[in-house]
Design brief:
- The complex is a heterodimer of chains A (585) and B (591).
- By secondary structure, chain A is of the alpha+beta class.
- Chain A folds into three domains: 53-138 and 237-360 and 452-473, Aminopeptidase (3-Layer(aba) Sandwich), CATH 3.40.630; 153-231 and 381-445, no CATH class; 479-584, Immunoglobulin-like (Sandwich).
- Chain A has eleven helices and 22 strands.
- Chain A has helices spanning 14-21, 33-46, 93-112, 114-122, 133-137, 259-270, 310-327, 341-347, 407-419, 458-472, 511-516, and strands at residues 51-58, 64-70, 81-86, 124-128, 178-182, 188-190, 198-200, 211-215, 274-280, 292-293, 308-309, 352-356, 426-434, 438-445, 479-490, 493-502, 522-527, 533-536, 540-543, 550-559, 564-571, 578-584.
- In chain A, strands 1-2-4-3-9-12 form a six-stranded mixed β-sheet, with helices on both faces.
- In chain A, helix 1 packs antiparallel against helix 10 (458-472) and helix 7 crosses helix 10.
- The longest helix of chain A has 20 residues, at 93-112.
- Chain B contains twelve helices and 23 strands.
- In chain B, helix 3 (109-124) packs across helix 11 (441-460).
- The longest helix of chain B is centred in the C-terminal third of the chain and has 20 residues, at 441-460.
- The interface between A and B is large, with 41 and 40 residues.
Chain lengths: 585, 591
């Protein structure tokens, strides 16, 4: 009775290897859509042995959205995959540059880098460097403007005119920045510590507002509010179904109305081998612990409590810890995850959603730092439990955002800018005679000041993220048949025993995945020859609940009086497949 | 010879034609002949249904127009028929009512109700002033079948009253990687999916009803040791995929009435919802259509069964609808209860069950439109005379008596022997698919008429705005006050509280403009008067006084009093524009 075991995937101490041997990716480059597409095509064309271009869909403006797939040749059935998505937030073009360096590094490394070869032998990687090409393209246009919204227009100021008063470069300096002007109804004052920064007047401190603050723009509809009704309103990463904000100004007409959202969702549905999604953008699940709820938290009026389920959060914390050690990235996330792709991936698809913010101007900078471009967020102390809210005025196209400012953070950002010799990140306030508003000052944080790190840091960031990414392959659940044996109990009766094993850190399905059942369970089928029948046990067993480093045993009694072969077949969506065969005399 | 034959034929026809002097068919039986004869004592499959609509369109080409808004999973046309008198303006200029049916493929008879609504309006147009108003000044978007694939399948294939509810996109319901591989099976090939029962002497939970062996009675659970002789084995079928379960992965397996965006929840909260809102081609086509129809002002979505006039919310977590809107829901709902015997006006989550992502709830919560779902047919309609309660059998006995007495037993498949691959000798039997959720032939016409007329009542409630009064007052110093009363004659407001509160669609617009000799008219200020006795109580607009924008619009059967302060004299045009009613305009002399 010989038992043929399938190969068990035990990757030895990947973490240690990653830190030493991971390849060095090329320096990130900011590329417009045409150049990025060309580069992706070139990578696929030059490396057919490991890279392929897979279409994802088209943007609203009919720009192609593609993924680059990496694997050692054609991936094995159900080989788990990691999807890397960048630049889903319009202003995060830098994230697409980093994602593209991963692609180049994987393509190059497949030829001679052991770590990359081992990684791709067992893991498929899809990289979508730019999920939001329409918004990203604004990064390469003049004037400079952080375009976030691309969807269909909304009449934001409810005057029965759509898009009649968009932000614009009023002073013609090539930048859509901010405007401040004195107004008796203004709610802002100049920060006494640094008049470049604005403070919300606090009546409790005896302060009366003196200034209005708004995005740079005309007041074309002459309603005394400038730049409050742009032409595009729906923001892609608010258009996914999890906690979608119906009738929210930027949420879109309905979830997945944005072609980019739907394309990405359909891509996920078609590629069920995806077990984990890594995103580079404004949101964070990895640097700071996301909100979590008890596994069995009661639904409120039938709606489940939102947040990571405790046992998933505990495993995420392991990844987070490793991420912190490998990258020292301390960048905090920005904005709400309502309607986000990242939340949809975890809450609705039940997959691991690792959201990574690559850069923001640190607000807890050490004062002693020398004025060098080398210093980035990672040198700052941990954000701890600081509120994950987006505080500073920024280009969102909606005037109410200005009310959220927490000036102390702006002050800290200015200090970092001064200390880092990054003066271009702040446009000095300059008086300007505004055609509608009269005397204003135009200036403030420059577009992309908070999304693009100092250029000197780019290679380092690309490297650190690749180091981490390459560790993740070993974490993905993979089932193997650890034992498969058969014993004849009597002339007609055979006992069959099997053990399946998941050797990874992560369980077969996250708790969320067990709940959503979005991925197919592991299917274990006992394969019997003609003439044999099952006396006890199920021909087919469906398994969702198998933890990391966990084993599951199965037993059968089979009736058969001839020498025979009995097989066991495992298959899944995203946790591998295996077969074993045992001969019984 | 040919000439003579034709003349004879004409002579023969003449008496019939001249007798129908009244024209139209307003529910009165004498002296009316419809131009398009449709039998209202039967149900039509998808092709027949579409063909009848096409026949109406051919007969009334200026009043009815087909639009294909997309294609179903099986590539059938998704048809919306637009009903309005196009000679009196395009549909998009008029307030419109959407009526659909049959999103659940087995819930068929709503389609006949939609067909009847079209037929009733078309046949009576030109003969009844209220119908004329509906056809000239309103539009109807009629979608006879949201789910034409499963409608076709329900008629075509072996089914029961509840099967073929889903759409036809293959799904892996049991998670084994195979799609639709274990449906119910018509084991005996008689065209019906009914029940399986097995004689298990001393080992069952049921026994035969001594009065009627077609029925089974549960054996009481006590310590007396009484055992039943029969066991129910579920729906007709077997374990096709050999996974140890029978009939667990049939065709499709989702619910297109759980797919809409408002309060949408994923599968694990709301079964059948699909991977994301509006995932199915049918649901998305409808949403795309309606989102381009800001004139939509009323919505009905027919289902079966239970006899209900349902409104949202579908989920408790939504909270309650706005009070002003509830007045409209309640008025129509109560009238509906009067028009539709055995139907109750109910709140979905509270009185029925929770529904996340339902279509009619999206109609209100998403589109801001007063929306209902009628559940057609209530079993109580078998025995409408409540004074005979004491002699009327109830439950399954009642169904059998009705079937035996009034349908000659045609609705029931008598129990008969079958050799089942797993259970051995069993009996197959039960009620057919067209018993229980759809009315018998002779009650169909009443059902479609009452429901169609409920829709027309709903449509009549869509706003009609007129300028009720204008008045010019000389305030001295060359300044005049122009008072205009804008009135909405009907129950539905021009902007529902939901639309106003959630900023759905465009706000209403009240304007004044000097014309002709009054072209130089200067509009100094303007706003809404909020106290009819105190003209100085007025919500002045901050800017653009000649162009007043109002989120709240004009309430149901209410008025809005606008006062403009102007300098100059001559002619001026005052107007109201909104999305849900024909524009109103008047010319006034300012002297």
């Amino acid at each position: 009775m010989a038992a043929f075991l399938s190969v068990c995937c035990a990757l030895a101490s990947v973490l240690a290897i990653a830190a030493q041997d991971a390849p060095t990716p090329p320096a990130p480059e900011l590329l417009d859509h045409a150049a990025l597409s060309a580069r992706m095509g070139a990578i696929a064309g030059a490396h057919p042995e490991c890279a392929a271009l897979v279409p994802v869909g088209f943007s609203r403006a009919r720009r192609r959205i593609d993924a680059l797939r990496f694997s050692a040749g054609e991936p094995a059935v159900a080989q788990p995959a990691i999807l890397v998505v960048a630049n889903i937030d319009g202003p995060q073009a830098f994230s697409s540059a980093v994602a593209l360096t991963h692609a180049q590094a994987l393509a190059d490394g497949f030829a001679n880098d052991k770590l990359v070869q081992d990684f791709l032998a067992k893991t498929t990687v899809y990289i979508v460097p730019r999920a939001n090409p329409d918004a990203a393209e604004a990064r390469f246009a003049m004037p400079r403007f952080e375009l976030e919204a691309t969807g269909t227009g909304v009449d934001n100021d409810r005057d029965r005119r759509d898009g009649e008063d968009p932000p614009s470069d009023v002073d013609g300096d090539g930048v859509v920045a901010w405007m401040r002007w004195k107004d008796p109804e203004g709610q802002w004052i100049l920060d006494p510590k640094d008049p470049r920064a604005m403070l919300k007047a606090d009546p409790k401190k005896g302060q009366r507002g003196e200034y209005m603050l708004a995005l740079e723009g005309r007041d074309l509809d002459r309603d005394e509010t400038p730049s409050e009704d742009g032409t595009n309103d729906a923001i892609l990463n608010q258009n996914f179904p999890q906690d979608w904000q119906e009738h929210g100004a930027a949420a879109g007409r309905f979830p997945m109305d944005e072609p980019e959202a739907r394309a990405l969702a359909e891509f996920m549905l078609q590629h069920k081998e995806i077990a984990m999604v890594v995103t580079y953008g404004a949101l964070d699940t990895l640097v700071e612990k996301p909100k979590s709820v008890a596994d069995g938290a009661a639904a409120q009026k039938r709606i489940p409590a939102a947040g990571w389920l405790e046992s998933d959060a505990a495993l995420l914390a392991e990844l987070s810890k490793r991420y912190g050690e490998l990258t020292t990235n301390k960048t905090k996330g920005r904005g709400s995850d309502s309607g986000s792709f990242q939340a949809w991936v975890y809450q609705h698809r039940g997959l691991w959603s690792l959201a990574i913010p690559l850069f923001d101007i640190p607000t807890e900078a050490k004062k002693k730092e020398p004025a060098s471009g080398d210093k980035t967020a990672e040198d700052n102390p941990a954000g701890g439990d600081a509120a994950k809210q987006d505080d500073a005025p920024k280009a969102r196209g909606k005037s109410e955002k200005k009310d959220e400012a927490k000036p102390s953070e702006d002050l800290a950002r200015l200090e970092w800018i001064d200390a880092s010799n990054e003066a271009a990140r702040f446009v000095p306030w300059k008086s300007f005679a505004h055609p509608e508003l009269g005397a204003v000052e135009i200036g403030g944080f420059a577009p992309f000041a908070r999304t693009e790190p100092p250029t000197a840091d780019w290679p380092k960031i690309a490297k650190r993220e690749l180091d981490f990414l390459l560790t993740l392959g070993a974490d993905l659940p993979r089932v193997s048949i650890e034992e498969f044996s058969a014993k004849r109990l009597s002339p007609g009766l055979i006992e069959v025993n099997a053990a399946i094993y998941n050797g990874a850190l992560l369980p077969l399905a996250s708790k969320s995945g067990q709940r959503t059942e979005s991925s197919r369970p592991l299917k274990c089928v006992l394969v019997l020859p003609e003439g044999a029948s099952i006396a006890s046990g199920a021909k087919q067993t469906l398994i969702r609940d198998l933890g990391g480093k966990s084993r599951r045993e199965m037993h059968w009694l089979v009736v058969c009086d001839q020498p025979t072969q009995i097989g066991l077949k495992l298959d899944s969506d995203n946790a591998g497949a295996a077969t074993a065969m045992v001969e019984v005399k | 010879m040919l000439q003579l034959t034709l003349t004879l034929a004409l002579l023969l026809q003449t008496p019939v034609a001249t007798k129908a002097t009244d024209g139209g068919f307003p529910g009165l039986p004498a002296n009316h002949t419809p131009k398009v004869e449709i039998a209202w004592n039967r149900l039509y499959d998808t092709d027949q249904l579409y063909a009848l609509f096409d026949k109406l369109e051919a007969q009334y080409p200026t009043l009815l127009k087909k639009q294909v808004i997309g294609h179903s999973t099986e590539s059938r046309e998704l048809r919306v028929y637009i009903l309005t008198n196009t000679k009196k303006g395009a549909d998009t200029e008029k307030p419109a009512m959407w009526i659909d049916a049959n999103v659940h493929g087995n819930e068929v008879q709503g389609s006949e109700a939609v067909l009847y609504t079209a037929w009733y309006l078309l046949e009576n147009y030109g003969h009844n002033p209220r119908v004329d108003e509906l056809v000239d000044q309103r539009a109807f978007y009629l979608m006879p079948s949201v789910n034409p694939d499963s409608r076709a399948a329900w008629f075509r294939d072996a089914n029961n009253a509840s099967s073929s509810r889903t759409g036809r996109q293959p799904m892996d319901d049991d998670g084994d990687g195979l799609f639709d591989e274990d449906p119910s099976d018509d084991l005996d090939g008689d065209g019906h999916i009914v029940q399986l029962r097995k004689y298990t002497p001393g080992e069952g939970t049921l026994r035969l009803d001594p009065d009627d062996p077609r029925l089974m009675i549960p054996v009481p659970q006590n310590d007396k040791g009484i055992k039943g002789d029969w066991t129910m084995l579920g729906q007709e079928g077997f374990d096709n995929d050999g996974d140890g379960r029978a009939n667990e992965d049939g065709v499709g397996g989702y619910d297109m009435n759980r797919s809409d965006p408002s309060m949408w929840m994923p599968e694990h909260v709301q079964g059948g919802a699909g991977p994301y809102p509006l995932y199915w081609p049918e649901t998305r086509a409808i949403a795309e259509f309606l989102l381009t129809k800001p004139n939509l002002a009323a919505l009905q979505s027919f289902h079966n069964s239970g006899g209900m006039i349902l409104r949202g919310p579908g989920a408790e977590a939504f909270g309650e609808y706005a009070r002003e809107d509830l007045r409209v829901f309640d008025e129509l709902g109560r009238d509906g209860e009067r028009m539709l015997p055995f139907y109750r006006y109910m709140i979905i989550w509270k009185d029925l069950y929770s529904v996340f992502g339902g279509f009619a709830t999206w109609g209100y919560e998403g589109l801001g439109v007063i929306s209902f779902t009628n559940e057609l047919w209530n079993d109580a309609q078998q025995y409408p005379d409540s004074s005979k309660e004491s002699i009327v059998p109830t439950g399954r006995k009642g169904d059998h008596f009705f079937d035996d007495a009034l349908l000659m037993g045609a609705g029931f498949v008598d129990w008969h022997q079958y050799e089942h691959p797993l259970y051995g000798a069993v009996e197959i039997g039960g009620f057919k698919k067209d018993v229980g959720r759809v009315p018998p032939t002779f009650l169909i016409e009443e059902m479609v008429h009452r429901n169609a007329l409920f829709c027309l009542k709903h449509a009549e409630a869509m706003p009609i705005v007129r300028i009720a009064k204008t008045e010019v007052t000389d305030l001295g110093g060359g300044v005049r006050a122009v008072d205009v009363v804008f009135e909405n004659l009907r129950a539905i407001p021009t902007r529902t509280a939901r639309a106003a509160g959630s900023k759905i669609g465009k706000p209403d617009l009240f304007t004044i403009e000097g014309t002709g000799a009054g072209a130089g008219l200067e509009v100094l200020a303007g706003g809404m008067r909020t106290d009819r006795f105190r003209p100085e109580v007025i919500e002045l607009a901050d800017r653009e006084p000649a162009r007043l924008v109002s989120e709240r619009g004009i309430g149901g059967r209410s008025e809005v009093r606008v006062r403009w302060f102007v300098r100059g004299t001559g002619q001026a045009t005052v107007s109201w524009q909104g999305e849900k009613a024909l524009a109103a305009q008047a010319t006034i002399e300012i002297r």
